[in-house]
């Protein structure tokens, strides 16, 4: 089922229910400075733009990762994952200024979200997205570039559209008030009928679509014992503003990484009894061909962080941190699953996606 949903999204268009997302609004004259202190990446982007950013612990490991939309000069909206809301809410609230310069409002219970992605996503939404004059909204890459946030009407329903993708396809996250959710859903499906639009489950969103792009997930690839350099998420420059974990992050950038996040493929999934097995990303150890554990310079064992079908690639994929001497494209290793070893190959060392490495499908 997941594979069929994956292929339909890759070939036409699919819709994912993302209402479990958490949305936090930060408003006030101190909002920009506060969020810059909390986040690694620069949040002071133009109104109508967004930023992806990690949050760090004081020691430079991952505390979270999320996207931030700038909705006004003093208004930002944080979008964080279904399982991350409680943790992130606590972290923001813990550091919130006490001088009244920032107002923190949790909007999660009042907002519903869907994601619409695929080659026909723009054609689907072009039928129903308008501006406040009811003129068709320009959904082209020129008029609505990647990372942009826009207020639109969809069949008359006020919505926020955000051009972003966690599955490697062109499309949008669309937010509206909870009471409008069913109307929005029905409007999108009616518009996409000619393209055989289908609902797509979290197996595609969180696993197959994501793993083909090598996208990192908090709690899997992103943990407090690893840093953005090792995860392949370091940007070319570091902002001048101070932020939590900055000193440790600068130190990590100044030294060679002890581990590199890699994408591996299984050369064979056949077990000793003659049928295929499917590791689930449950900390399966990565071993050398001699069967030895792989341990990096900081004493961390290499293990599978995510596993799943690369449906569009015809490969079963694994994500894992490897020491630099093993993080070499073409390197042959093993993964242990259910007490048997299976041959694997390093496909990518770093953050370049295995599927559509130039991101043409999303941004071209």
Automatic annotation (TrEMBL):
Pfam families named among the record's database cross-references: GCV_T, GCV_T_C
Domain GCVT N-terminal: 2-235
InterPro entries xref list: GcvT/YgfZ/DmdA, GcvT/YgfZ_C, GcvT_C, GCVT_N, TrmE/GcvT-like
Name of the protein described by the UniProt record: Unannotated protein
Taxonomic classification: unclassified sequences, metagenomes, ecological metagenomes
One cellular-component annotation, GO: mitochondrion
Domain Aminomethyltransferase C-terminal: 286-348
PANTHER family: AMINOMETHYLTRANSFERASE, AMINOMETHYLTRANSFERASE, MITOCHONDRIAL
